[in-house]
Amino acid sequence: MKIITWYGILTLEENGVADCELFNKDVDELAEGLLHQNAAGARAPEAGFDIRAPAISFGFVENDREYDSLLRDVSIRAGKLRISRTNTPDMRIIQAVEALDDIDDAANALSERLSEWYGLHFPELGFSSEQLARFVKEHGARSNIPADDPIFEKASSSMGAELPPADEELVKQFASNICDLYDNRHSIEESIVRNMGEIAPNLSNIAGPLIGARLISMTGGLERLAQLPSSTVQVMGASRALFKHLRSRAPSPKHGLIFNHPLIKNSPWWQRGKIARALAAKISLACRTDVYSGELSPAIKTGLEKKVNSIKSSNPKPPAREKPSGKGRGKGNKNSGGRR
Amino acid sequence: MAVKELSDGIFEVQKSGKRFIGTKNAVPGSAVYGERLVEAEGDEYRIWDARRSKLAAMVLKKMNIPIKSDSNVLYLGAASGTTVSHVSDILTDGLVYAVEFSPRTMRELIQLCDTRLNIIPILADANHPASYAHIVEQVDVVFQDVAQPNQAQIAAVNCEQFLKGDGHLLLSIKARSIDTVANPGKVFKEEVKKLEKEFDTKFQILKKQDLAPFHDDHLGLIAQKLLR
Ligand SMILES: C[S@@+](CC[C@H](N)C(=O)[O-])C[C@H]1O[C@@H](n2cnc3c(N)ncnc32)[C@H](O)[C@@H]1O
């Protein structure tokens, strides 16, 4: 029987180790070997087998001290190799997607504050989030709004309090920081789109780069996503909302992430379930193609378009029964995405 | 100021009226995770906080730690190496095989290995000892702190594969389900029973001890493999 160890392949016979085919005593080679230990025909040592003794008796190392230090070097090298190999481009995409979410959280909180703060001064403005931040950054106090601006009327008749110059500086600075966050968000999105085109051209082509990136982020990597059944891909993102719903009374989820896809969003409710199923199937196919060949295959998209057209032409009208209501909706809900 | 060795490499240090436990720093001058360094009788000790380490809590709970300065230790659930670093201090003449399955955490553990000569880092799942049996030799002590529901089974398979006859197992058992917060004692009993079943009378349980107040809902357990 042959068993494998980090330093060589041992041949075991009844009365012990009969032979040892030693590996090259080179840290890099040995570390590589550790990563691909399932060498043909050899097995892991049996329970209770002492792997140290043969390393010395067959002369791989001279003594225990050398065994210790070589094994240490090899294990550290192997660990570093494995870690650097888990830092694949899809891991960077995942970080970028998470950064988008963090920015959204931060920008929302800051925008709400800006809205309250600036609202003391100009409550009639009616802007929020990015639009508000850009406005405040540009104009500051409402007295600076030029007469030809459509807002001018509102601004000059506002019931808001005065904004002292010192506060105006502060609030402008605050707004400007929010604008920077939004700018940063745009550049992260652009980089996601670029990187997705490189590492997952088919997924980008079918799902769109941003939805594709979110799917990767949710599963933890492109390869894992490629291994999921398409029925899972279809509802992914819904479960996250579901947990949130259970934890915090957020609204119950109607549908997964791919329902943000224009093919589904722009279709009438009674076609959405079928289209979602077709889209999810093509997304899975696209991921597998990205993992195994990496080449863009336009046939996937044409296939999807054909399928969607046939769904549309065979379901032109809502089903005869009225839009299902009450409990009956339960199951259809997930697919219909009809109500917000 | 006085230093007393409680067991191999584990010291009680008295300083300005306070008592600490600590290990003799194998890399003098540098702390690993922000722990305090103190000088006593010409040596530098790293203060070992029982709230951050189940093993340190076991020491304070007067459990006899069977780790000798020349032991080889298999450590399951090494995380970023807080406790491993102290084990590394204790083993002036032995190795600690540190198994951890999260690559993110392993990143930090490997940085620790770079500065210490007796830690062998292994990125692997402790459920599958065969996946590191080509690296790990027979050891004197298995220490396990994985905090997983199948902790008893993980301990059993690893002891089967790697623990020498008469070697020791040190186990941190976590009471997991929520309603047991009310009665962790019951969970511990069940876990110990499970363990005995997994071990199939190949072990003798030497000591078990609730690790509160250092770690809530954790039981420390020391067992010895029976020679056959
Ligand atoms: C409670 S922490 C350990 C803390 C550490 N012993 C210390 O005191 O510094 C548990 C660790 O076990 C790891 N872990 C959990 N299950 C594991 C498994 N099956 N194999 C290897 N490591 C595992 C976790 O990733 C985590 O880092």
UniProtKB/TrEMBL annotation, chain A:
Residues 304-340 are annotated as: Disordered. One of its GO terms (molecular function) is snoRNA binding. Residues 199-313 form the Nop domain. Pfam families: Nop (PF01798). Residues 326-340 have a biased composition (Basic residues). It comes from the Archaea. GO terms for cellular component: box C/D methylation guide snoRNP complex. InterPro entries: Nop56/Nop58 (IPR045056), Nop_C (IPR042239), Nop_dom (IPR002687), Nop_dom_sf (IPR036070), NOSIC (IPR012976). Belongs to the NOP5/NOP56 family. This is rRNA biogenesis protein Nop56/Nop58. It comes from Methanococcoides vulcani.
From TrEMBL, chain B:
Keywords: Methyltransferase, RNA-binding, rRNA processing, Transferase, tRNA processing. GO terms for molecular function: histone H2AQ104 methyltransferase activity; RNA binding; rRNA methyltransferase activity. GO terms for biological process: box C/D sno(s)RNA 3'-end processing; tRNA processing. It is an enzyme of class 2 (transferase). Interacts with nop5. Component of box C/D small ribonucleoprotein (sRNP) particles that contain rpl7ae, FlpA and nop5, plus a guide RNA. Involved in pre-rRNA and tRNA processing. Utilizes the methyl donor S-adenosyl-L-methionine to catalyze the site-specific 2'-hydroxyl methylation of ribose moieties in rRNA and tRNA. Site specificity is provided by a guide RNA that base pairs with the substrate. Methylation occurs at a characteristic distance from the sequence involved in base pairing with the guide RNA. This is Fibrillarin-like rRNA/tRNA 2'-O-methyltransferase. It comes from Methanococcoides vulcani.
